[in-house]
């Protein structure tokens, strides 16, 4: 992994096209799946103990990489989220499931505890049942959710992405401003990935990350579906920005070790293979 002090350059459409060309082909896909690390039930101890707090019993967090929430009396310390590393920074990314209706406060605690300043929902927020419990949908609106006071500072639209700036104030802790990105055109019922939406949301994340410290939290229904393609392309772009050379196998393996199901979803959809970004770049 490259050092975080390496100098990076601004990514252009040609870099995005290069990333698309370097995504795993079918043969690499088969090899990656064959190398998938086999974890034991003990490795999923927390997820199994809190089975009702998971969207899917088939996607549980590996204990070693689990994001444990800080202890607060009367509250859970579990959320289905794992730390991932980007090409430039260790543990700078988080892969998590959407908040369930009864654990939206835990989702906000995850944001607070792990200083997630950029939060990405890979679908429209309105498609998630729990959104109304914590998210103030219009500018200036506020919400209370457990120990959190949330205010919508602004909402703007970009290409295939809505950018929501929120202020969250946890009782007894410092307030923080976060950016919540959502994909209004990538409906939850869609079974396959939209290549242009995926690239546009990654572009928006990279823009926000230049102005924000803290981690990037990416959420999908189960914490793996849709997240896998996002992280693969994100890390490939980081590699290209540093040295123009990409070890795509290693990039995918880094994600696979910590969230094995992420790579399973990459290959199941063949999302990355379908990202023919070279032709997209020519369209612009």
Question: How are the SSEs placed, and which strands pair?
Answer:
Blueprint: H1 13-21, H2 26-34, H3 45-49, E1 81-84, E2 93-97, H4 104-113, E3 116-121, H5 131-134, E4 142-145, E5 148-158, E6 161-170, E7 176-182, H6 195-211, E8 215-220, H7 227-243, H8 248-258, H9 260-269, H10 271-274, H11 277-283
Parallel strand pairs: 2-8, 3-7, 3-8
Antiparallel strand pairs: 1-2, 4-5, 5-6, 6-7
Helix pairs in contact: 1-7, 1-11, 7-8, 7-9, 8-9
Question: Which tags fit this structure?
Answer:
284 residues, alpha/beta, Protein-Tyrosine Phosphatase, Chain A, eight-stranded mixed sheet, 8 strands, globular, disordered N terminus, disordered C terminus
Looking at CATH, which topology would you report?
Protein-Tyrosine Phosphatase, Chain A
Rg computed from alpha carbons, rounded to a whole number of angstroms: 18 Å
What is the overall shape?
globular
CATH architecture call: Alpha-Beta Complex
Could you state the CATH homologous superfamily? Protein tyrosine phosphatase superfamily
Distance between the termini: 32 Å
Organism: Magallana gigas
Domain Tyrosine-protein phosphatase: 54-284
Keywords: Receptor
Domain Tyrosine specific protein phosphatases: 196-265
């Amino acid at each position: 992994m490259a050092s975080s002090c390496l100098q990076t350059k601004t990514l252009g459409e040609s870099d995005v096209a290069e990333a698309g060309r370097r995504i795993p082909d079918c043969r690499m896909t088969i090899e990656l799946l064959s190398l998938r690390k086999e974890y034991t039930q003990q490795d999923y101890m927390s997820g199994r103990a809190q089975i009702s707090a998971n969207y899917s019993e088939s996607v549980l967090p590996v204990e070693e990489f689990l994001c444990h929430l800080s202890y607060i009396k009367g509250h859970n310390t579990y959320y289905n989220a794992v730390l991932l590393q980007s090409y430039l920074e260790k543990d700078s990314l988080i892969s998590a499931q959407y908040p369930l209706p009864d654990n939206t406060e835990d989702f906000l605690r995850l944001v607070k505890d792990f200083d997630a300043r950029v939060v990405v929902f890979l679908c429209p927020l309105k498609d998630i049942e729990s959104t109304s419990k914590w998210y103030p949908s219009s500018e200036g609106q506020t919400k209370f959710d457990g120990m959190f006071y949330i205010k919508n500072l602004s909402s703007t639209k970009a290409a295939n992405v809505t950018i929501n700036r929120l202020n969250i104030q946890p009782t007894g802790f410092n307030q923080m401003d976060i950016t919540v990105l959502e994909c209004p055109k990538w409906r939850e019922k869609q079974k396959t990935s939209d290549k242009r939406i995926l690239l546009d949301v990654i572009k928006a994340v990279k823009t926000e990350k230049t102005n924000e410290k803290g981690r990037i939290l990416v959420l999908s229904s189960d914490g793996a579906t849709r997240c896998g393609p996002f992280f693969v392309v994100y890390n490939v772009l980081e590699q290209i920005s540093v040295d123009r050379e990409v070890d795509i196998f290693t990039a995918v393996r880094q994600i696979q070790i910590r969230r094995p199901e992420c790579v399973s979803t990459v290959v199941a959809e063949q999302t990355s293979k379908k990202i023919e970004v070279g032709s997209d770049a020519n369209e612009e």
